[in-house]
Amino acid sequence: MKKIVYILFLLFLGGCAFAVNFNIPQTTFQIVHEAFGLNYAPNSKIVRVGIGTQNFSSYEWETTSIYGTGEFQLYNNKTYIDTYDASNQINIRMVGKIFVLTDSEDNVINKVSGPIIFKTDFGFLGIKDLKRAGKDAIYRGEIHLVSSSHNGKFYIVNSLPLEDYLKGVVPNEMPVHFGLEALKAQAVAARNYVLSPRVKANPNYDVVDSVASQVYFGANTEKELSSKAVEETRGIVALYNWDLILALYSSTAGGYTESYENAFSDPLTKKFPAESKPYLIAKPDNPDFGDLREEDKAYEFYTSKPKSFDINSSYYRWTREWTQDELQQEVQNHIAGQSSAGFVHPQVVKGEVIGKILRLTVLERGASGKIMKLQIETDCGNYIVEKELVIRRLFTEKGKALPSANFVLKQEFDEYGNLIRVKAYGGGFGHGVGLSQFGAGYMASKLHKSFEEILKHYYSGISLGTEPFILSSNPSQRQINQTFYTKNGKAKLVIDNKYKVSYLDLCINNEKIKIDLDNSNRFNIIDLDTYLQKGLNTITFYYPNTLGTNKGLRIFVEIAERNEYSD
Length: 567
Description:
This protein is an alpha+beta fold. Among the domains are: 2-35, no CATH class; 47-161, Sandwich (Tumour Suppressor Smad4), CATH 2.60.200; 318-426, no CATH class; 466-560, Jelly Rolls (Sandwich). 18% of the residues lie in helices and 33% in strands. It is built from twelve helices and 35 strands. The chain has a seven-stranded mixed beta sheet with strand order 4-3-8-11-12-1-13. Strands 14, 15, 27, 28, 30, 33 and 35 form a seven-stranded antiparallel beta sheet that branches. Strand 3 and strand 4 form a beta hairpin. Residues 1-14 and 17-43 have low confidence and may be disordered.
């Protein structure tokens, strides 16, 4: 068999034959596949999405029914049970830790411990009676049912390739009419977000399908233009040095994004402000806006409507108003719940009366004017409230949280100094850190900015490229494939050549390439334009045997550059 494979390499010189030359483990099928010049790009990374109930109130289910739009297979873990056509559905309930499966006529199929896995090669899988965006909830990939820690309850997990997942995210996170370049920016941000989330949603899944992660409504909500945006950014992520950025985004920044640390606490220690992130820094749409930490400057900004990228959002500017009694009721109803997160000082327990509110005083703002710390003065004492989400959820109007914490206050007092009315003038919707979706839409449609320009505005000092990896002697890292899209056929190879390798062997779009490296410089940036094509490109990287063991090269392909790299 080996002789046959070697002959194939001689016959099909268009393919890449490094596996033989460099002793890289491959199956015969893989070698022949490449010899014929067929696409042997790796499968997209798999994303596991927790599917919520109809109103997203829970991610634990007691019963469900799964069906296929075509023929589908049912498994208990890895054990095949049966194949069903589209006229069937499988009903599932749990008794203790055991799944009870019945068919469409309520006949018991099996009683198993799970996880239960549904697969299909024909169409999609659906969850009966679940709607998303007013349509039947159907999904690409597989559906897994996994028991939770509570008897009689389980999770529904949609397991699918990353790029397919993004096709169900982008049109639900951003209006498609914002245009292709804005949708591409959203696709990259969403790809980063799922690959490098701020916190993992659950040990059984990576993200959920709601705003708690990013909105994912499945295959029935995909749109042609947003799917094109996913395809034309395939494999592309936003990077700061060698790391994927935390690509936070929100609906509307109000004309001025905020620095990460001024809006978020550390997800582990709960410290607020959090440690800063150099690519998530406050940035005005117009440099003339200046710093808004001072109260008078924030007041001037949020009581006016200067031209900005967010100006088309209905939440660009907003107002909320309370009488003293209304404010008292809203704060009293929510302060104990918000205090439990640790950002109200002193802590308020359920049932505790805070006293009559006398005055509100902003103690600290971020550069965008976002409130970081606010004092509630009452006749029983003062309370300090920190962090934008806590503030938004505390100062509700008719039970609904404020759109953002970017607001200023106008307080009215009677002749005796008693508070009688409070009005908030605000801007933006969401946390306001990172990409503003309405801002991206404006930049794309009105200013004709590319997705690269949009992303570089909202994320400071970034580059765009493939996910960095280590090429090493480890069997799983000796041969790495990457597929990515470039609209102009231009990209650079960025290599951290710490161990002074003299050359690197590649296969680019089935063409064998030897790249000479400059081992006098640690970081090598090599132009790949000669070898790339417009559209999808696939590169296979081969570990150089001359490097020895316990060493490696850090590598990624850059499509939009940052000027310098470091550790």
